[in-house]
Sequence to fold (451 residues):
Amino acid sequence: MSTSPAPGAPRAFGPETLIEPLCGPLAGEARVPGDKSISHRAVIFAAMAEGTSRLTGVLDSQDVRSSIGAVHALGAAPDLAVQPDGSLAGTVTGWGAAGPRQPAGPIDCGNSGTTARLLMGVVAPWPVTVELTGDESLQRRPMRRITAPLMKMGARFEPAGRETLPLTETGSAALRAIDYDAPMASAQLKTAVLLAGVFAHGTTTLREPAPSRNHTELMLPEFGVPTTAAARLASVTGPAAMTAADVTVPGDPSSAAFPVCAALMRPGSRLTVENVSLAPARTGFVRTLERMGADIAVRHEGQEGKEPRGAIDVAYTPVLRGCEVPAQHIASLVDEVPVLALVAARARGVTVFKDVSELRVKETDRLAAIIEGLALLGVEAWEDGDDLCVEGDPALEVPAGLVFDSRGDHRLAMTWALVGLTGQVPVTVRDFGCVAVSYPNFLDDMERLAK
Ligand SMILES: O=C(O)C1=C[C@@H](OP(=O)(O)O)[C@@H](O)[C@H](O)C1
Ligand SMILES: C=C(OP(=O)(O)O)C(=O)O
Fold:
């Protein structure tokens, strides 16, 4: 693989990191790194395609490097280099009609659920046997949601009955198309089934209980695969040929949520986050903050491929009010629930996130972790069935000397860091280095925005 070795030399962090208050309010223009979901798809779709794709703005993070390493092991030729702005750009030459090669050993997906689950769909239509594994966190995450539909299509997984990684998948050149009702709104599940469906015989259709992110439906046609997409339905007809495409990745709204929420909480702040994906299936956090009374607005500025792109303007808002986030909207903000819960902790009244059961099976049990972290702050938060309730306190004072445990989860590490960055006293975050999974330069970027 010709991918430049180290991500733009991000800061190294020890077991405990002291996060000091920012030296002033957040102001000016911010840029966040490339979207993680779109980066994974760009790399993986390019690897599946015939010919050489050109990719720019790709996120350079541990998770995306897991996808790059995986497609290389499967026979694609990625040639991506770190750019002056810290992104990855270059080419990926795919295996195309020849299919992936038999890898020499197990493929380690690291901490990345998206890598592992999308790869299962990639491998399914080809006569190869691939062992997929990951770090301790990924080995705890449920995989049956992916293996069940792929087995219906004709792929095999061993050991039989095992629901977690490591798993060995054997694909089938005679994959069957399926019509599938997904039990949960998951773009990883939807994408795995659609990617298998590209090479299955017939029309593969997936229905979901609520709309999940639709980057796959938007990007597959760019790679020459006609895709039907509606609010809760997507389908592809195979076998289809995938051909190389050029992809420019816009900024990641899930990373943007951190400076946005920091600006809301830090008095005097006024900030614009430029060039982020404004896909409606990703910007549920903006709509939720609007409903809480936040001074926030989005500006649409065009498209990157089929992805809507633009800016988010936000200013410090002294009084926020709690709200109810309906279950149907959770998929559109699923990775932002931790940081939204922190904002809710300062709002007047109770905020209820309906049916957030999916949070229990992310990098850690984020539901339990949010409640544990808010309790340190003296904020009452509790589970009510699968709902998360947070009783806000607009007069919240952060006690000195708090130590938050990230549990090795990048979204939690950044959420608890905001307590220190936007407050009056430092906080300690354990295992802060896991931010490298999605946003390696998070702390430097936040410090740069403080004026
Ligand atoms: O498809 C994707 O790129 C992702 C989908 C979501 O997971 P689920 O599909 O499990 O909801 C999200 O939490 C994850 O960060 C990325
Ligand atoms: C859940 C996440 O990613 P993944 O499922 O790819 O590990 C995330 O980035 O918050």
Remarks:
- Residues 37, 40, 114, 186-188, 191, 212-213, 334-335, 358 surround shikimate-3-phosphate (ligand 1) (CB under 6 Å).
- The longest strand covers residues 295-304.
